[in-house]
Design a protein that fits this description.
- This protein has 347 residues and is an alpha/beta fold.
- It folds into 2 domains: 195 residues, Rossmann fold (3-Layer(aba) Sandwich), CATH 3.40.50; 128 residues, Rossmann fold (3-Layer(aba) Sandwich).
- Helix content is 31%, strand content 17%.
- It has 13 helices and 12 strands.
- It has a 7-stranded parallel beta sheet with strand order 3-2-1-4-5-6-7, with helices on both faces. A 5-stranded parallel beta sheet has the order 10-9-8-11-12, with no helix packed on it.
- The two termini are 39 Å apart.
């Protein structure tokens, strides 16, 4: 079995690992030949490449992100001539794309979405039955109106995204029934909790060690509160970094006194929370919080987030609090406000 995965985040990597195992029927000695392309958006993600190549992937390549494409090609070309311009541009910028083209063409292709460099794979291999692996909370929201989808399809001829492109034949999602219509019709379940339950201890340890060394950190006691932060200033969905700090200062104030506060920075964030908040523990950024469930010894009485679906994935959290609606007036992007309003969560 040959597979090509294209993602951009730590979460995408984790889901790709689980999918490889599921698709290989959990036969860890026969995982097939797998290739991974990562869009350059998560700081230091390249440091994971040696561990990823030990067992799961034949090779891992970093490719450039959207802002580089717009800068090099120009806004007009990127908006209206992307299909003609992007393929030769990226193959020139990243020769490995041309080098691996035969393998990619003959493999099953799994995209985390169809934006940025991922558009290349949609354009170049769209005649295949492309597959998509969910992109977290964004996949469960209707990002574009019917009119916007019409414009993208017939005027700009750019990808719609979110699984709505006709070239995407299958979507692997944690909760297929929660996807916006008509996506559930082409959805297949890839549920983190269910997949982890099927793994043996050796495989769990192997996945854990891809992201964290053996004794990276310890969380003692059971009176712990976990806060999952998000890149809301980096993604420009609030007005400033200062606004983000103020929001999380208020979130921290809602944690009952006496609890040990552990803050998990999102991998794409650049904020140094240690400089703003004292008497809390800040975990490393470059790992998916879900992997703490692969090891014994991690437990949180409370878990807090604005709208991260990662909190829903954590069996090691007893009580979950989704607080995004408390700060709706702080979000400057309508799509983000709608995502928060429409979130279907189970505390």
């Amino acid at each position: 079995m040959s597979r090509t995965y294209v993602g951009s985040t730590i979460y995408h990597i984790y889901l790709a690992l689980l999918h490889i195992l599921k698709d290989s029927r959990y036969e860890t000695g026969n995982l097939g030949e797998n290739l991974l392309f990562l869009v350059e958006s998560t700081p230091m993600i390249e440091t994971l490449i040696p561990n990823l190549k030990k067992h799961f992937f034949r090779d891992v390549h970093i490719v450039s992100e959207r802002k580089d494409h717009v800068s090099d090609l120009g806004k007009f070309n990127y908006s209206f001539r992307r299909k003609q311009k992007l393929i030769p541009y990226l193959e020139s910028k990243h020769p490995v794309l041309a080098k691996e083209k035969t393998f990619i063409q003959n493999s099953d292709i799994y995209l985390c979405d169809t934006d940025s460099s991922k558009s290349y794979f949609l354009y170049e291999f769209g005649k295949k039955d492309l597959k998509m692996i969910e992109d977290g909370a964004r996949t469960y929201s209707q990002r574009h109106s019917n009119f916007e989808q019409f414009i993208k399809t017939y005027l700009t001829k750019t990808p719609i995204g979110g699984g709505f492109d006709k070239e995407i034949k299958t979507i692997f999602a944690q909760f297929p029934e929660k996807l916006p219509a008509p996506l559930p019709k082409k959805a297949v379940e890839l549920n983190i909790k269910k997949e982890v339950a099927k793994l043996d201890e050796k495989t769990k340890q192997e996945i854990f060690s891809i992201f964290l060394p053996e004794n990276a950190f310890a969380i003692k006691g059971d009176n712990n509160a976990l806060i999952l932060t998000q890149p809301i200033s980096e993604d420009k969905v609030i007005k400033s970094e200062a606004e983000k700090i103020a929001i999380y200062r208020d979130v921290i104030s809602k944690v009952p006194s006496g609890m040990n506060i552990i803050l998990k920075t999102h991998p794409r964030e650049t904020t140094q929370y240690e400089e703003h908040f004292k008497d809390i523990t800040v975990l490393p950024a470059l790992f998916p919080i879900e992997i703490l469930g692969l090891r014994e010894g991690f437990f949180f009485e409370h878990g807090y987030t604005l709208f991260s679906t990662a909190l829903s994935n954590l069996e090691i959290v007893k009580h979950r609090f989704f607080l995004g609606k408390d700060y709706l007036d702080k979000f400057t992007v309508k799509a983000t406000r709608n995502l928060i309003k429409n979130m279907d969560v189970h505390p």
